[in-house]
Amino acid sequence: MTEQKVRWGILATGGMAATFAADLVDMPDAEVAAVASRSTESAEAFAERFGIPRAYGDWDTLAADDELDVVYVATPHSAHRAAAGLMLEAGHHVLCEKPFTLNATEAAELVALARDGGRFLMEAMWMYCHPMVRRLKALVDDGAIGEVRHVQADFGLAGPFPATHRLRDPALGGGALLDLGVYPVSFAQLLLGEPSDLTARAMLSKEGVDLQTGALLSWENGALASVHCSIVGGTATSASITGSKGRIDIPDGFFFPERFVLHREGQDAEEFTADPLHGPRASLKHEAAEVMRALRAGETESPVVPLDGTLAVMRTLDAIRDRVGVRYPGEAADGTVPDGVVPADGVVAGGAAVTPA
Fold it and tell me: Would you state the torsion angle of the CA atoms of residues 264, 250, 294, 193, taken in this order, to the nearest 10 degrees?
């Protein structure tokens, strides 16, 4: 796979799949060879839109396609375990959208499938692959701001989203945390690793999903992270990293920053800006390029988006949901929020500390 184009299959035809396909078809070393959906009509329309030669109206036919190098899974996240698992079991390498799965148990099952079968697997955490985020992490790792003491990050959408929207549907893994909160949690853990403890509070909907959630993560060395996500209020999507010798501020779009500012005591603020050669700030090409680099190198895991890091994030998301009382169908006997939490728009749940499992 060192010379020829990497042949991609795409599973799903929604917005993320379309965004990813649009970037892939513009990459000279990539080929979108097949697309699958549960609907033949949807798959064929998607294929026509992006010039994809093969369109399938079911997942099994894509799984059986032996002329693919890797499959991108962009189904609703409640289906990630089933979709990615099917592709791995068929012998395909997989890039799976975030959140990786509904919970850490499902995530561990996928990782075990990939490792046992010698298949490449990566979460589509494009933030980790973004050149500006990688530059920021390198600065922090090199001690530019000393020891990290606190991380702040937020991601909220104004909505309002009706009860029928996927973001409020428990059957689809709805709620702010899994859809949006995965970004600030992943950002904090990119810099500090898995927390040793956390507290969390949330406003729940009548359906039992979180409309907004705030969490305070803590580490044994005393570091803290304040993370917030919402589907009832648009936020600045800002982030700040405070260290013992300085601070880095990302004023907006922390998961795909156009610029960030380094502050160090006794020195002028230093602004870092994106290289225009890297393309649009929202490009997904960087994660696609990392997948193709790893495949050509014969790697089954990416050092940029390591599977152990993905598992650690899923454990943290589980712990936050456990604290605020969000359960999805299949996670509890009746698929409802546990006793003691009465979800209704505007009700706040949670509060005490919990240690991630």
Answer: 70
Q: Which residue in the list 5, 98, 206, 245 is annotated as catalytic?
A: 98
User: Distance (Å, rounded) from C-alpha 164 to C-alpha 176?
Assistant: 15
Which of 78, 123, 120 has its CA nearest to residue 100? Answer: 123
Return the beta strands (E) in the chain as ranges.
6-11, 30-36, 54-56, 70-73, 93-96, 121-123, 148-156, 197-204, 210-218, 224-230, 239-243, 246-250, 259-264, 270-273, 347-354
pLDDT tens per residue across span 160-209: 899 999 999 999 999 999 999 999 999 999 999 999 999 999 999 999 99
Residue 210 pairs with which residues in a beta bridge? 204
The predicted-structure confidence for 131-171, as pLDDT tens digits, reads as follows 999 999 999 999 999 999 999 999 999 988 999 999 999 99
Is 98 among the catalytic positions?
yes
- Looking at the whole model, is its pTM more than 0.90? yes
Residue 325 backbone class (left: φ over 0; alpha: ψ -120 to 50; beta: rest): left
